[in-house]
């Protein structure tokens, strides 16, 4: 079973690339982020034509998350996170797919830092951790998949110096991510590639893709019941190099 997280950076602009990926790679579950689409304009017909059912949580021009399932429709469990009622960002969607709990996560970027956007990012990590703890308490197979906008380790970026002032790599961001993982989640990509050097994102600027100047911010965290079934974790890197591609590559786990 292949579960993918994929920040599409605008689902309408990237729809040909998304359908292409679904058709060629045939993943079983796909968590999408940064739809930049309202609920009304989500291209559900195209996704269904590719053989996938979908649940989505849209927002016009910004954010937005979705969960796709091959040959079925995910059952929604929760949209949004508690703890901040005034937060209207579409960044969290949790579904059940044949007994597997899957959450699609688009964590705030947090730049510029310091400032209110960075403070919001840190609060959001804490809110995610609270929900993650509740999921673990259910003792169900679960995967928290998404664009976390956190570079966890120095070897998760092409250049520590280039990123040192970015919100993605601040000590507070990293500490929040580590606290989340320490609840009992397994960072799948890290487990399979312990020496780092695996990128999931390459900026459009300064020839980052051509120079392989990327970093790892797309993560799949596995609950103990799923971690025991982990076969492989990796990045479908070639899809980043295609015409009008997202700046993220699909990142995946295979589980028994």
Automatic annotation (TrEMBL):
Show the InterPro entries listed in the entry.
AP_endonuc_1 (IPR004808), AP_endonuclease_F1_BS (IPR020847), Endo/exonu/phosph_ase_sf (IPR036691), Endo/exonuclease/phosphatase (IPR005135), ExoIII-like (IPR037493)
Q: Which UniProt keywords apply?
A: Hydrolase, Magnesium, Manganese, Metal-binding
Any one GO MF term held by the record is: endonuclease activity
Entry annotation: catalytic residues: 106, 147, 248
Q: Where does Mg(2+) bind?
A: 7, 34, 147, 149, 247-248
According to the lineage, what is the superkingdom? Bacteria
Q: Which organism is it from?
A: Sphingomonas oligophenolica
Annotated ranges, domain Endonuclease/exonuclease/phosphatase: 4-248
Question: What name does this protein carry?
Answer: Exodeoxyribonuclease III
Cofactor: binding details: Probably binds two magnesium or manganese ions per subunit.
Annotated site, Important for catalytic activity, chain positions:
218
Needed cofactors = Mg(2+); Mn(2+)
Q: Lineage of this protein's species?
A: Bacteria, Pseudomonadati, Pseudomonadota, Alphaproteobacteria, Sphingomonadales
User: What EC number(s) is this enzyme filed under?
Assistant: 3.1.11.2
Bilayer-spanning residue ranges: none
The Gene Ontology biological process annotation of the record reads: DNA repair
Pfam families referenced in this protein's UniProt entry, alphabetically: Exo_endo_phos
PANTHER family reported for this sequence = EXODEOXYRIBONUCLEASE III
Q: Where is this site: Interaction with DNA substrate?
A: 248
Record keywords: Metal-binding included?
A: yes
Residues under site feature: Transition state stabilizer = 149
Q: Does the keyword Metal-binding apply?
A: yes
Family membership noted in the UniProt record: Belongs to the DNA repair enzymes AP/ExoA family.
């Amino acid at each position: 079973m292949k579960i993918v997280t994929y920040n599409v950076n605008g689902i309408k602009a990237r729809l040909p690339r998304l359908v292409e990926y679904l058709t060629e790679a045939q993943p079983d579950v796909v968590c999408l982020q940064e739809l930049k689409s309202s609920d009304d304009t989500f291209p559900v017909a195209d996704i269904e034509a590719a053989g996938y059912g979908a649940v989505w949580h849209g927002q016009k021009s910004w954010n937005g998350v979705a969960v796709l399932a091959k040959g079925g429709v995910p059952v929604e469990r929760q949209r949004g996170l508690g703890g901040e009622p005034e937060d209207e960002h579409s960044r969290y969607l949790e579904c059940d797919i044949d007994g597997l709990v899957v959450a699609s996560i688009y964590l705030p970027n947090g730049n510029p830092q310091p400032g209110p956007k960075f403070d919001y990012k840190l609060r959001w990590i804490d809110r995610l951790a609270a929900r993650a703890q509740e999921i673990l308490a259910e003792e169900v197979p679960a995967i928290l998949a998404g664009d976390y906008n956190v570079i966890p380790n120095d070897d998760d970026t092409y250049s520590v110096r280039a990123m040192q002032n970015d919100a993605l790599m601040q000590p507070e961001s990293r500490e929040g991510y580590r606290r989340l993982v320490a609840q009992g989640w397994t960072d799948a990509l890290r487990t399979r590639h312990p020496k780092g050097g695996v990128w999931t994102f390459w900026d459009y600027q300064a020839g980052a893709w051509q120079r392989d100047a990327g970093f790892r911010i797309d993560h799949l965290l596995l609950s103990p019941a799923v971690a025991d079934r982990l076969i492989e974790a990796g990045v479908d890197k070639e899809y980043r190099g295609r015409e009008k591609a997202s700046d993220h590559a699909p990142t995946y786990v295979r589980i028994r």
